Amino acid sequence: MDLLQDILAVARFGDAELGYAELVRPWGLEMDPMAEVAVHSLRRGSAWLRLAQLEPIALAEGDVVLIRAGVAHSISDSLDSPILPHQSALEEMPARLRSLPPEQAGATHIALCAKYLFHELTPHPLISRLPRLIHVSTTQPRHAQLGRVLDLLAHEAVEGGGGSELVVPRLVDSLLVFVLRAFLEEQPTGAEGWFAALKDPAIHKALALIHEQPAKAWTVEGLAREVAQSRPTFARRFSELVGETPVAYLTRWRMALASKLLRESQLSVDEISQRVGYESGAAFSKAFSRSLGVAPGRYRTHARQSAA
Fold it and tell me: CA nearest 4: which of 207, 236, 243?
C-alpha cells in the first residue's frame, strides 16, 4: 500500500489549483499566509525565496519548494527587486511581456505554482507536521520522476489540448506526492517525526495494517504482535514517530475515512459506521461528534452545501 498517497487522498478537500507565470525582471511576488499548502517550481531562471526568521534561500532552475499552509513568503528575481502582492504583480505581467524587446524574449523567468487545500476538521498528522519549507532539486538523478511530472504540467499549462481538464488535476495531485516522496527519500536513517515513521519497517507495517483494515478491532497488543515487537517497545516507538498512540491514530484515521464517505458517497450513517469499525450508527455518531464537534448528518449537510 502507498501510505503517502492514501493519506493525501483522504485528507485533501477541494480541487488543487495550478498557476503558470512568465515573469519579466525585475519581479517580486508576496504570498500571504494561505490556508493551502503551496508548491512552487522554477522552470527557467533563478530567484530568491524569503520566509520569516530564515535567511534568503537561492533557487536555481529546476528547484521545487513546498511551503506549509499559513506560512507567509515571497519570491523575487533578486534581493533588491520590489516585492508586490502576487496578484498585483501578475496582473501587470502581460503588458510588460508585450513591451519586452525581441532580443530579451528569452530572458524571462518561468514559474509553476500549485495550491492544495486540506480538510480542517479532520487534520492528519502528516499535514499538521509538514515542515515550513521543503526544498528539492529536480536536477538530482534520484528526483528525475518529479522533474518529468513538472515537464508534463508545464506542457499542459502552455499547450493544453484535448482532455487537458482531466489531465491537469491528476498531474497536480501527483506533483504533491512526488515532492513529499522526494523529501522522504532524503530523510537520514534514525530521523524522528512522521515522515521517519514511513521509513521505520515496523511502524510502516502497523500503519499499513490500520489503513488496509480500518474496521478491524485493532489493539496495541495486536499490532505489536503483527510487527514482531513487544508491546512496550512498539507503543513507545509508534508514539515517538507518529506523535500519538496507535489507538488515537486508528480513531483519527477512521474519522478521516468517515468524513470522506459522508462528503462523497450516498452511504447511510449506519453503513459508514460499519466500514470504519463501529458496531452501530449510534456508537459511530457519538465518536464522530466527540472527535469533530459536529454530528455526522449535520457534517454531511454542511459539506454538500459548501460544495454546491
Answer: 207
